[in-house]
Design a protein that fits this description.
about 60 residues; three-stranded antiparallel β-sheet; 1 helix; 3 strands
Length: about 60
């Protein structure tokens, strides 16, 4: 079984425990969630990204 690698939200230290050994902050999973073609909020996410790109002049 593979062990999960976590990253501290405060200091950025990588760990395998739920709390950071350095600053005692919360550690979160660094692997992104799986993509779902049935994403009910995908339309809004894509519209927001397109708006950001237009605002930056990249689109």
């Amino acid at each position: 079984m593979a062990k999960k690698i976590l990253k501290c939200q405060n200091c950025g230290t990588y760990t395998m425990k739920g709390k950071c050994p350095d600053c005692k902050g919360k550690a979160v999973n660094i692997i992104p969630a799986k993509f779902s073609p049935e994403d009910k909020y995908g339309k809004y996410r894509r519209a927001g990204k397109q708006k950001d790109l237009k605002d930056k002049g990249l689109l």
